C-alpha cells in the first residue's frame, strides 16, 4: 500500500511539472486574426483574373467594325458640314453628332 | 439616268448636251471593281450613269492600310474632275460597291470640243467648278469642326 501511494504521489508531481512546462511554452498574447469585409466593399467579379476595365485595357474592336464606325463618323460629319453650307451660322458649324468615335 | 440630268451638263441646251455626250464612252465596273486607284494619271472625267461609286482614302487601322469611304457618287454626279484639272492625278480611289455604269469623257476630246464651242466650255467649266467648290466647302467645314474639338479637348 505504501508503495502504491508513493508511485501515485510521484506521478501527480510529474503531471504537475509537465502542465507547468507546457503552459510556459504556449504563445503569449496571440489573438485570432479577424477577417471582415469593409462596409460597402464590392466582391470581385473575377476570382483569378482582374477585369480588363481595372487594367485600363479595352477589348479590341474588329477592324471591320472600326472601319464602319469611321465611315459612319465621316458621313455624320459631312451631313453636319452640308447643314452648315445651307445655313452658314456658328451654331450649325459646331452642331453635335452622335458618333461612336467621340464617345 | 437621262444624259441631260448629269450635273456636268447643267445649263446646256439639249443639243449642246447631246453633242458633248457623244464624246463619251460607256464603261461598266463590276461589283467590287476599281474605276481608278489613288494617284493614277487622270485623263478622263466620268459621269455616273447608274449604280454608285465609292471614293475612298487609305487609313492606317491597327497597322494595316484600310480603304475608308470618304464620299459616294450617285447617278448623274461627276467623278474624277482631276481629268480636267492639273496636275491630273486622282486624289482618291474610286470603286463600285455594286455594279455601276459610267460615261467616260476623255480630256483630249473634251478640250477639242471646248475649243470649238467656247460657250459650252464656259458652262461645263462652271459646273466642274461647282463640284470642286462644294467639296472644298464641305471639307473646310469638316476641318474646322475637327479643329474646334481639338481646342475643346486641349484647352477646356
Structure in words:
The complex is a heterodimer of chains A (103) and B (156). Chain A is mostly helical. Chain A has a domain of 52 residues. Chain A contains four helices and no strands. Chain B is an alpha+beta fold and 156 residues long. Chain B has one domain: Jelly Rolls. Chain B has three helices and eight strands, in the order H-E-E-E-E-E-E-E-E-H-H. A four-stranded antiparallel beta sheet of chain B has the order 1-8-3-6. In chain B, a hairpin with a 2-residue loop joins strand 4 and strand 5. In chain B, helix 2 packs across helix 3. The longest helix of chain B has 38 residues. The mean pLDDT of chain B is 94. At the A-B interface, helix 3 of A face strand 5 and helix 3 of B.
Could you tell me the strand content of chain A as a percent range? under 5%
Q: For the report, how would you describe the main beta sheet of chain A?
A: none
Largest sheet of chain B: 4 strands, antiparallel
* CATH structural fold name of chain B: Jelly Rolls
Poorly predicted segments of chain A: none
Task: Pick out its properties.
heterodimer; A: 103 residues; mainly alpha; 54% helix; 0% strand; B: 156 residues; alpha+beta; Jelly Rolls; 4-stranded antiparallel sheet; 29% strand
Brief description of this entry?
The complex is a heterodimer of chains A (103) and B (156). With 103 residues, chain A is an all-alpha fold.
Helix and strand arrangement:
The complex is a heterodimer of chains A (103) and B (156).
Chain A: H1 2-25, H2 52-55, H3 63-86, H4 90-93
Chain B: H1 14-21, E1 25-29, E2 34-36, E3 44-50, E4 53-61, E5 64-73, E6 78-79, E7 93-95, E8 100-106, H2 107-116, H3 118-155
Antiparallel strand pairs in B: 1-8, 2-7, 3-6, 3-8, 4-5, 4-7
Helix pairs in contact in B: 2-3
Amino acid at each position: 500500500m505504501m508503495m502504491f501511494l508513493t508511485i501515485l504521489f510521484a506521478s501527480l508531481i510529474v503531471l504537475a511539472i509537465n502542465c507547468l512546462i507546457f503552459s510556459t511554452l504556449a504563445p503569449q498574447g496571440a489573438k485570432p486574426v479577424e477577417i471582415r469585409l469593409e462596409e460597402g466593399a464590392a466582391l470581385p467579379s473575377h476570382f483569378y483574373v482582374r477585369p480588363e476595365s481595372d487594367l485600363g485595357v479595352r477589348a479590341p474592336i474588329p477592324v471591320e467594325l472600326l472601319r464602319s464606325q469611321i465611315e459612319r463618323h465621316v458621313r455624320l460629319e459631312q451631313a453636319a458640314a452640308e447643314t452648315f453650307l445651307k445655313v452658314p451660322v456658328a451654331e450649325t458649324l459646331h452642331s453635335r453628332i452622335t458618333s461612336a468615335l467621340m464617345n | 439616268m437621262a444624259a441631260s440630268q448629269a450635273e456636268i451638263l447643267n445649263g446646256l441646251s439639249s443639243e449642246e448636251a447631246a453633242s458633248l455626250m457623244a464624246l463619251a464612252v460607256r464603261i461598266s465596273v463590276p461589283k467590287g471593281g476599281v474605276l481608278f486607284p489613288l494617284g493614277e494619271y487622270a485623263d478622263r472625267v466620268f459621269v455616273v450613269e447608274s449604280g454608285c461609286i465609292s471614293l475612298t482614302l487609305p487609313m492606317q487601322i491597327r497597322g494595316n492600310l484600310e480603304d475608308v469611304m470618304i464620299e459616294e457618287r450617285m447617278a448623274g454626279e461627276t467623278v474624277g474632275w482631276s481629268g480636267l484639272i492639273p496636275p491630273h492625278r486622282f486624289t482618291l480611289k474610286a470603286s463600285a460597291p455594286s455594279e455601276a455604269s459610267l460615261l467616260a469623257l476623255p480630256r483630249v476630246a473634251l478640250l477639242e470640243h471646248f475649243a470649238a464651242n467656247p460657250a459650252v466650255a464656259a458652262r461645263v467649266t462652271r459646273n466642274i467648278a461647282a463640284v470642286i467648290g462644294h467639296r472644298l466647302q464641305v471639307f473646310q467645314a469638316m476641318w474646322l469642326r475637327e479643329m474646334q474639338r481639338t481646342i475643346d479637348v486641349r484647352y477646356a
